[in-house]
């Protein structure tokens, strides 16, 4: 076993264990902190795959924005931060079914994939993946259309959030 | 000559040779050498940190017309060591009902978020941890870990003031991250890379504070807010919140937050130097034939350290001469002023870059500088009109006599 494989197995085990803790711990803040550990594990996996840009963006977006937002939401909406309510609601079997189906679908898809036991080709020396990614995002032959559609979607979400937060009765947003 | 050109590689090769000579496999030896390198770097940073405490106390004393530490040793230099011994032998108190694991993890994460920044700082072309091609984003990512440590400290202390301080601090940090990202993108546009080494090299002959003075200013403001120092020290605000998110911490755990903050300020002084003032370069002086002896690794390291200290001094200067801004003013300043300005600057810079990138460096530099100047003038003019309109709302229309009197 190579060093990279050992590191990958350790990281994967930590990621899975903290993902398990996210759904089993009773304290919501602890769940959010375990989620941070899970997301960090995913970022380390990206880094191990030489995808430095994705690793850093994973930390900036998921830990720096989304997880912090989760923690804020929990802190601002719960009076008591120690949750004692039931952990499951009546729809638990639907989500369990969906999770099993998704996992089964992924396994089925990867089962027939030949790439699993072949080595990836070495990257050429001096290859700058971030330049290639930037070119691909704005090249008409690659991903310019999905990129623009996603940005329009985000803009619409932004405008929608401002509209929801804006209180027309007070006339301006400053109370 | 290797000793003058690449001492880090020389030392690593010598160490690995020594360990393989003892019969260690080469892979393990490389790993051990890398760990030793990290250990030495962190040890040096911690020693620097001790002297930063002394420096900070000495500088604040001068700003407040005092002498500062002056009893222990020459110029009070032994004072920080006495402070550390005091912190170490203080009673370690954990509040009742505190969340023990999270409570103890927070100061470590806080210190860690500063230390890992040094992985990407190029002290010289080849004295650096790693030349990441996404270094500019890496700075923002470590900021995310710092934010997390503050909210963990505030929540786990089981104290209202700590929680309020953490809320306010995190609101400020999350907001000022946006102008910071935008101002980090400007050196990226100018140099065509996010790597710190490439950004440093692209600043010959013209450093980026000449090409984009507005970006340098926005980065400094956003960095001070990110550090949580005055005038943006919302998390601490000792007159309102006692000491904010770290009020329950005692002894060395408080010391970790405090030392982390000082080292963070020093580090951001360094980043200011790297991103806008040419990093380890001496503004092109070392390229002159008569001064070629300056182009060596040790002078490079010294240059960057001096730039970091100057940046740190400016951050202290701002801290000790400005009042704390009220939180709503601070957030309005960010969302209604700094964020739009930084995005406008980003668009203008990208446009000018696209138009002038094939021109000679001097034409390129001049057009960048002029576009910054025009944008700055528009901003100042807009602010003048806005503040006059606000004043007229309160005082009624300005009297011509007051105008003549210079108001």
Q: What are the SSEs and their pairings?
A:
The complex is a heterodimer of chains A (about 180) and B (about 400).
Chain A: H1 3-24, H2 28-48, H3 52-77, H4 92-111, H5 129-138, H6 144-165
Chain B: H1 2-5, H2 7-21, H3 26-63, H4 79-89, H5 100-115, H6 135-156, H7 160-191, H8 196-201, H9 208-211, H10 213-227, H11 238-241, H12 251-276, H13 297-321, H14 327-356, H15 361-395, H16 400-404
Overview of this protein structure:
The complex is a heterodimer of chains A (175) and B (407). Chain A has 175 residues and is mainly α. Chain A is built from six helices and no strands. In chain A, helix 1 runs antiparallel to helix 2 and helix 2 (28-48) packs antiparallel against helix 3. The termini of chain A are far apart. The mean pLDDT of chain A is 84. With 407 residues, chain B is mainly α. Chain B contains 16 helices and no strands. In chain B, helix 6 (135-156) runs antiparallel to helix 7 (160-191), helix 7 (160-191) packs antiparallel against helix 10 and helix 7 packs parallel to helix 14 (327-356). The longest helix of chain B has 38 residues, at 26-63. The A-B interface holds A 3, 29-30, 33, 36, 52-53, 56-57, 59-60, 63-65, 67-68, 71-72, 75, 81, 128-130 and B 27, 31, 99, 102, 132-134, 137-138, 140-141, 143-145, 147-148, 151-152, 155, 163, 167, 170, 174, 177, 194.
């Amino acid at each position: 076993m190579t060093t990279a494989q050992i590191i990958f197995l350790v990281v994967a085990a930590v990621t899975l264990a903290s993902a398990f803790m996210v759904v089993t711990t009773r304290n919501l803040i602890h769940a959010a902190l375990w989620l941070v550990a899970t997301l960090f594990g995913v970022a380390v996996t990206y880094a191990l795959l030489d995808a430095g840009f994705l690793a850093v963006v994973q930390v900036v977006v998921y830990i720096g924005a989304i997880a912090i937002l989760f923690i804020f939401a929990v802190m601002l909406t719960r009076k008591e931060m120690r949750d004692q309510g039931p952990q499951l609601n009546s729809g638990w079997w639907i989500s369990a079914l969906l999770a099993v189906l998704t996992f089964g679908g992924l396994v089925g898809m990867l089962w027939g994939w030949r790439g699993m036991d072949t080595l990836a080709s070495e990257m050429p020396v001096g290859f700058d993946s971030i330049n290639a990614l930037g070119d691909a995002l704005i090249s008409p032959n690659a991903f310019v259309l999905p990129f623009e559609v996603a940005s329009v979607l985000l803009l619409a979400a932004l405008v929608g959030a401002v509209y929801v937060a804006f209180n027309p009765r007070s006339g301006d947003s400053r109370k | 000559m290797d000793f003058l050109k690449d001492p880090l590689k020389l030392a690593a090769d010598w160490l690995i040779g020594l360990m393989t000579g003892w019969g260690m496999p080469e892979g393990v030896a490389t790993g051990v050498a890398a760990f030793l390198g990290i250990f030495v770097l962190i040890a040096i940073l911690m020693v620097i940190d001790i002297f930063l405490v002394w420096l900070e106390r000495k500088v604040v004393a001068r700003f407040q017309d005092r002498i500062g530490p002056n009893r222990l040793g020459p110029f009070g230099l032994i004072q920080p060591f006495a402070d550390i011994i005091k912190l170490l032998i203080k009673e370690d108190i954990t509040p009742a009902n505190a969340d023990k694991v999270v409570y103890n993890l927070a100061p470590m994460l806080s210190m860690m978020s500063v230390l890992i920044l040094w992985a990407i700082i190029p002290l010289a072309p080849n004295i650096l941890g790693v030349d990441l091609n996404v270094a500019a984003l890496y700075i923002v990512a470590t900021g995310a870990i710092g934010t997390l440590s503050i909210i963990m400290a505030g929540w786990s202390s089981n104290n209202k003031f700590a929680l309020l301080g953490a809320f306010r601090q995190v609101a400020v940090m999350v907001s000022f991250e946006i102008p910071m990202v935008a101002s980090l993108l400007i050196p990226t546009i100018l140099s065509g890379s996010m790597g710190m080494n490439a950004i440093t090299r692209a600043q010959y002959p013209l450093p980026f504070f000449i090409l984009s003075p507005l970006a340098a200013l926005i980065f400094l403001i956003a960095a001070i807010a990110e550090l949580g120092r005055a005038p943006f020290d919302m998390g601490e605000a000792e007159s309102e919140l006692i000491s904010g998110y770290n009020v329950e911490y005692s002894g060395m755990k408080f010391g970790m937050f405090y030392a982390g903050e000082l080292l963070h300020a020093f580090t951001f002084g360094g980043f200011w130097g790297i991103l806008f003032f040419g990093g380890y370069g001496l503004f092109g002086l070392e390229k002159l034939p008569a001064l070629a002896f300056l182009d060596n690794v040790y002078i490079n390291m010294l240059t960057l350290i001096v730039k970091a200290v100057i940046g740190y001094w400016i951050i202290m200067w701002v801290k000790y001469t400005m009042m704390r801004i009220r939180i709503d003013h601070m957030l309005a300043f960010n969302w209604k002023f700094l964020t739009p300005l930084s995005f406008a600057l980003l668009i203008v810079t990208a446009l000018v870059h696209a138009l002038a990138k094939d021109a000679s460096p001097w034409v390129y530099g001049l057009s960048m500088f002029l576009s910054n100047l025009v944008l700055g003038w528009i901003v100042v003019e807009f602010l003048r009109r806005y503040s006059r309109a606000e004043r007229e709302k309160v005082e009624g229309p300005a009297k011509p006599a007051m105008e003549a009197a210079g108001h």
